[in-house]
Design goal:
The chain has 5 helices and 2 strands, in the order αααβαβα. It is mostly helical. Helix 4 links the parallel strand 1 (53-59) and strand 2. The chain is globular, with a radius of gyration of 17 Å.
Length: 130
Amino acid sequence: MREYRRSKHFEETTHLSKVKKVATEILQLGNQCGEGWYLAGEMICLIREKVENIVCVQPFGCLPNHVVGKGVIKKLKELYPMSNVVAVDYDPSASRVNQLNRIKLMLEVAAENIEKRRARRRGLPGGQEA
């Protein structure tokens, strides 16, 4: 952890006890499938640290992660409306075009959110661009 603190490029990871605590906002700690509560807790911690755009990479057709990961994304968006999370499957059967399109769509939503935020700062009604 000391090296993280000294680094100019990396931040210290969130302590596991905090990840565990925030995960209970959206699921029970008995959930052990698809990284269980850790995936949900980690995404909540990132969102609270102002990392609103998250690509949740799901490797090798992991069915439990597919169910848990996609299941928590909906709840995350309810609790944190500014969050922009996309699940992308990475396995031999996944289409590369589909993967790239999902990421590009997520980036477009991120750009739209930035523009809405700028419009709100300028005081435009409804956060719309002039």
